[in-house]
Amino acid sequence: MIQPIIMAGGSGSRLWPLSRQQFPKQFLTLLGNHSMLQTTANRLKGINHSPALVICNEDHRFSVAEQFRLNNIPNSGIVLEPVGRNTAPAIALAAMLAIRNGDDPLLLVLAADHVIKDEPAFCHAVHQAITLAEQNQLVTFGIVPTAPETGYGYIERGLPLATEFGFKVAKFVEKPSLSTAQDYIATGEYYWNSGMFLFKASTYLQELKLHSPTIFTACEAAMVDMTHDADFIRINKAAFEACPDDSIDYAVMEKTQHAVVVPMDCGWSDVGSWSALWEIEDKDAQGNVFKGDVIGINTRNTYINASEKLVTIIGLDDVVVVETKDAILVAKQSEVQQVKQVVEQLKAEQRSEWQHHREVYRPWGKYDSIDNGGRFQVKRITVKPGAKLSVQMHHHRAEHWIVVSGTAKVTNGDKEILLTENQSTYIPVGVIHALENPGKVSLELIEVQSGSYLGEDDIVRFEDRYGRVAPKEAQ
Question: Which of 45, 112, 296, 384 is least surrounded by Cβ atoms within 10 Å, i.e. has the fewest?
Fold first, then answer.
C-alpha cells in the first residue's frame, strides 16, 4: 500500500492575478473541471494507495479541507505547517507520521499544482518504481524532456540498474542557460526534475538523519506534542520554526548514495507561468487560448483568461491577458515571468491585491467586497447551509445586514432573531453578535459596515466552531 503525500504549499505569485497568497494555484481550476489539488488526488485512482496525507500552511487549511469535501475525496489528515520550511522538513513530518503506528509505507510525494496529461503513463512509472523503493532506494521521477527548457532543474542519469528500468542518479543540476539545456537534450541522458518521489518512510528518515541531522532533530521535536483538530494535524510551532529551510534535493537527494531516477513521459508541467499554461492548452487555428467571455480579432499566439468581464483584443501577437474582479494583467509571453515583480511591488505598497481576491473564501462560505469608501464598506456574504460565523464583536465598526435570500439566524446582543428575504438588522459598535444559516439552501445577504476602522483584524472572537481563536485573525 502506497501512502501519497500531497504538498499543497505555494505563494500564489507566478499565476497572479488569478492566484493570490491566500488562494494559490493549487486551488485554481485551470484545466478540466477540477482544481489542481483535486486533480492531483484523483489521478491516484490507478494506484493501490491509502488516503492521501496533505501538507499545507495554516492559512490554507480550510480551503484544502473544503476542496477534498466538495469532491468526496478521503484523506489521512491535513498537516499544518506553522511556517514554511521547504520540502525536506515537510516530507520528514509526513514520514514521521507514517511510521508512528509501527508501519513503514512507501511514500509517494507529489506537488499539488502540477499538470499530468497522460495519467496511465504516470501510474505505470509509479508501479515500475515500487520494486526499487522496496529495496531502500530513494526514487525520483525524471520527466522525459520535450524541449530545452530553462525553467526546470535537470537530473543526469548514471549507470542503468539491474531492473529493466531506472538509473543511478549521476547528479542534479540547476536551471540551465538555453545553450546548456540544448546540450543536455542532445545527449539523451538528462531529465527534467519533477519533484516527485517514491521511497520507504524509514529510508527517507535514515538518510535525512545521516545527511541533514538538524532538520531531522527539529522535525522530531515538532512532532512530540502533535495534536489533532478535526481534519487538521498541528505540530509544535517553536520547534518547527527552529528547523532549517531546505529542499529535499539539497538536504538528501544530492548527498545520498541511494538516489535513483525512473523516467516518466506523461505530459508533465509544473505550470510555472502563464506562458507555460498557454503551451500545454489546446489552441485554435491562430494559436490562441481563450477562457471566458473573449473576442479576439486579428490575434495570434495569445492566452486570455476572462473571469468576470468581456475581454476584447485586436491586432496583437504573443501576449497574455488575465482579468479578475479587482486586477488585470497584460504582458508579453516572453516577459510574463516578471509578474513576480508586480506582486512584490503590491506587497511593498501594502495593497491587498497580492494577498487575496475581492471574493474571499471562508470555512463558512465566502464574501465579496462590492464597494468601499473612507468610512464604509459593502460586502455580499454567502453562508453555507448549517454554517455559522464566529460569535464576535467589533470595537470600531457597526454593521447593517440585509437578507437577499435564504434564512438568517442572528444573535444581536441579548436577542436572537430569524430574518428572511428583504428583512434586516443593525448591529451597533461593541455589540456581541453572530450569524448562522439554519436552512437547507445558501444564505445570501448584504453587509454594510460603517465606522472609523474597517480592517479584518477588528474582530474579537468569543466562540468559533472552526478553531479560529486569535483576535486578529481574519473573519
Answer: 45
